[in-house]
Prior knowledge:
CATH 3.90.470.20
Amino acid sequence: xxxxxAVEKFVLQRAGGLFPAAIAAVNQPFVVLKxxxxxxxxxxxxxxxxxxxxxxxxxxxxxxxxxxxxxLGAFMxxxxxxxxxxxxxxxxxxxxxxxxxxxxxxxxxxxGEMGVAVVFPEGHPMGVDVEAVDPKQSDTIREILTSxxxxxxxxxxxxxxxxxxxxxTIKEALSKVLKTGLMTxxxxxxxxxxxxxxxxVICNFINFPQYKSLSWISGNHAWSIVxxxxxxxxxxxxxxxxx
Length: 243
């Protein structure tokens, strides 16, 4: 599989002003990330990596950190990636440390060989998720959807497995924005409406009307970004992320 990296810096438009952000989607082989880790991991991250014994866990860690560092490199000028440290908060949410970096936050997701991260100012929360489409997980996902959500699956994708995976990423991304993880009953993240716009699925939420999700299928993966409902993003940015 060829190496792929897509990095986009973009602006979120709101009535109250403009907010900068950046997103990176990566598809890099484990051997490449492991060999080059000293070029993007902080010294403390390198030490933590050395404590990880399972290759699968090492790969996930490197994918997430590399995506985050590349997004941050697009968000800010003239930063040294190894000066940036990303740790985990008490709910396992990623926390970014950078001297004089200001109130910058990020959201990270990874699955298999894919990683994605979005960097944004604290004043404009966002969350991302990516999942491989796996028919073996479809029954499990279907069980956590409400009956109304199951009735909306046909609006998302003609392939029910892709639709289920995409709904899962939406809930995951929303949970990251709220910093609750999946410890909150999933029916609280219920999707209210589904709109398809040029292969991008736009959803709103019953209990969190202040947010919306932008989702898409690329290859065998489902991707979602959750952001404030009234924020406007150039959809061309999303389309360029397709790997």
